[in-house]
Task: inverse folding
């Protein structure tokens, strides 16, 4: 489970209790499926229990961009996303995924029992959302492709010798996520390999 999971600090018994408390509904998705379209009327949120998913946007020109990466334990829903009036935003299954859905209202209020696991869950939701946003902003704010890549690796790949095996993105998706031209990024990656910065 990733360190920004909303289930961190909860043992299996507490997670099972939380699923009852929040009335989780588990659904499975195949690679390439749209898990959720975000709008002001989206009443559900989801926790990714397995797999890899992206938050993508489509502008009025039809151009798509990857805005966020969801791994096991990540949460998503319209309440945690940007204003949905400008572009179309949707959650895309990059691999086969399992998602636990629940009412978004559960994030904004405690259950009738005021249980400690629910309070911890809400704290994790806030922390996780802020951390993921900060990470992407940090990456995008770097002024060169190399610095963007190095910052990305710092957050997503713990061991530089396992970059190719551990990267959560394809190279095309990585270029989209860090907002650079793929060809230019590939040239920079080749330079970094020659300099033994990555392997």
Result:
């Amino acid at each position: 489970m990733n360190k920004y999971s909303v289930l961190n600090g909860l043992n299996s018994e507490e997670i099972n209790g939380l699923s009852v408390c929040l009335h989780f509904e588990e659904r499975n998705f195949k690679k390439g499926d749209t898990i959720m379209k975000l709008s002001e009327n989206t009443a559900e949120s989801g926790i990714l229990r397995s797999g890899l998913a992206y938050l993508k946007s489509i502008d009025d020109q039809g151009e798509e961009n990857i805005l966020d990466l969801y791994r096991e334990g990540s949460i998503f829903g319209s309440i945690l996303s940007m204003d949905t009036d400008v572009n179309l935003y949707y959650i895309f299954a990059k691999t086969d995924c399992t998602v636990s859905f629940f009412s978004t209202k559960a994030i904004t209020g405690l259950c009738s029992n005021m249980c400690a696991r629910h309070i911890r869950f809400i704290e994790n939701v806030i922390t996780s959302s802020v951390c993921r946003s900060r990470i992407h902003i940090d990456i995008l704010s770097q002024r060169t492709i190399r610095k963007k890549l190095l910052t990305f690796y710092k957050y997503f790949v713990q061991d530089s010798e396992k970059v190719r095996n551990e990267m959560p993105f394809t190279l095309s998706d990585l270029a989209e996520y860090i907002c650079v031209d793929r060809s230019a990024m590939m040239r920079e990656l080749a330079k970094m390999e020659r300099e033994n910065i990555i392997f």
About this structure: The longest strand covers residues 44-50. Residues 116-140 form the longest helix (25 residues). DSSP finds seven helices and eight strands in the chain.
